[in-house]
Amino acid sequence: MAPPATMPELRGPKKSEDVERILNALEDDLKKTNLLPPIRNQRLEELKVHTRSTDDADQLFSKRGVSILCRHSFDGNSLTTGRLAMRCLGNVMFFKAPLRQDFVDLGYAIQATERMKNDNREDELLSARLLFLCTYETHLDFELLFNRHNLADTINSNLSRHAKHFAKTNGKTDLPQADMLAVNETLKLLYNLTNYYPEQRTPLTKSLLSILKILANIRLPDPPLQQPVNSLVNAMIHLDLEDSKNRIFPNNPLFPLFNNKYNLDRLCFILFQALHAYTDAELDALAAPLVQVLLRISEFAPLGPKSHMRSILLPSHAERDKALGKSDTLPGFLLRLSSSPMAPHMRQFVPALMFELSGKDAKAFVRNVGYGFAAGFLVTHGMEVPENALEAWSTGSTEEDRIEDVNEVDEVDEIVRDHGIPATRKRERLDVNPITGQRRDKEPEVKMPEMSEDEKLREAERLFVLFERLRATGVVNVENPVTQAVREGRFEELE
């Protein structure tokens, strides 16, 4: 018989007959052991080929098929045989969701949890995958697995072991594929558990330190947000990042004592690399969780790290030589995404992040990103666009009404600065266009032909109507300039 790897994939009646033949042999072997280990393993390799499609394999994708595979996965004495059977079982449960409940009803979720404790990457990968599938469309009592079978401790322990392995590479080499696949599957399980079982977020938050260590040491793929990097980011979304109530760590690992900006620089660097590598639609799916994590961190970050985030993520004064959103810096990319029709999640998270970094102050927010980028967010969240913010930019009358960066920022980690992310800011007094955020002295001169008196009159009438409509919406509290001129006695009626 040809080796399983080179076996042609059968179809139609031939496939159905072959599936039945293999299942009968494996089932008889369970009743009375009659297959030698190499033959048993070969049968499972043959069966694995048939699990790639549900076509012509009804016997396999059934409760009977699940039962046979479960018993070979967990009830035998050979771990090699068990792993082959678990691979078949994972495919069966992936392609036919109702069979996941059969797996649960047969009681093998507990055994998968126990198998996950083995210090073996393949056992970790396969058992985590089975439990991950059981987070969908089953009635599995995960509380039982947490309370009696230490599922949280197992996940924390496995990720801690991975973190030590990644630390040895120092970002210069990749770990074996088995390690990469195992850590990714465990992270996916962690994400789903923290998403669907909020009460388990506290014990699983112990994995935060391991996740950050892996992120710090993993060699980033190109493009960067591939597995397991995207799974590392996703796993942080529902963890107790602030660690304010339970005090799991003596010092929050997000802000390590040796450099409390280190992890922020790493996350921002990954984001910056991703912005250059993906389309808007891809970024909305892959990078939005990273922006969401940065948003969560910004909500409780200490003064120093938060000021550092402002220096990286908010537009710098140098960027105001152009209209905001036109530069190739990290804030420039983010501002463009915040208005992209192809990135609905980015349109939600990016303005929220910049609003948080502006101290949740609408006036500072408008100053930082410009009225054009700020208005939609403020209106959507029921906040008025502050009139004084527009006046400050248009007149530049007093120091408190000018753009001023109030952040005291040291230098950014070299890995960030070398890729175009602003490192420092200086306090400046600028006269800025309130709509575009561009310095007025840098705006291009627009040469227009002289308007006739009739054209001026028609333009004045059009502006009058527009101001009245804008005032009626309540979006901006502005006074029609014509009405203001009449009130101030500056209106002269022509004969």
Describe this structure in words.
The chain is mainly alpha-helical and 495 residues long. It is 58% helix and 0% strand. It has 25 helices and no strands. The radius of gyration is 30 Å and the shape is elongated. The N and C termini lie far apart (106 Å). The model is unreliable at 394-420 and 422-427 (pLDDT under 50).
* Strand percentage: under 5%
Query: What best-fitting shape do the alpha-carbon axes yield?
Result: elongated
**What portion of residues is helical?**
55-70%
Number of helices: 25
Enumerate the spans where pLDDT stays under 50 for 5 or more consecutive residues. Answer: 394-420, 422-427
Secondary structure: number of strands: 0
Main structural class: mainly alpha
Biggest sheet statistics: none
Mean pLDDT: 86
For the terminal residues, how far apart are their CA atoms? Answer: 106 Å
Secondary-structure element pattern, one letter each: HHHHHHHHHHHHHHHHHHHHHHHHH
- The radius of gyration computed from the alpha-carbon positions, rounded to a whole number of angstroms, is 30 Å
Features:
495 residues, mainly alpha
Question: What's the arrangement of secondary structure elements?
Answer:
Layout: H1 12-31, H2 37-50, H3 63-74, H4 79-95, H5 98-105, H6 108-115, H7 121-133, H8 142-149, H9 151-169, H10 177-196, H11 201-204, H12 208-217, H13 229-236, H14 262-277, H15 280-286, H16 288-298, H17 303-313, H18 330-337, H19 344-357, H20 362-369, H21 371-380, H22 387-395, H23 414-417, H24 453-473, H25 481-487
Helix pairs in contact: 1-2, 1-3, 2-4, 3-4, 4-7, 6-7, 7-10, 9-10, 9-12, 10-13, 12-13, 16-19, 20-21, 20-22
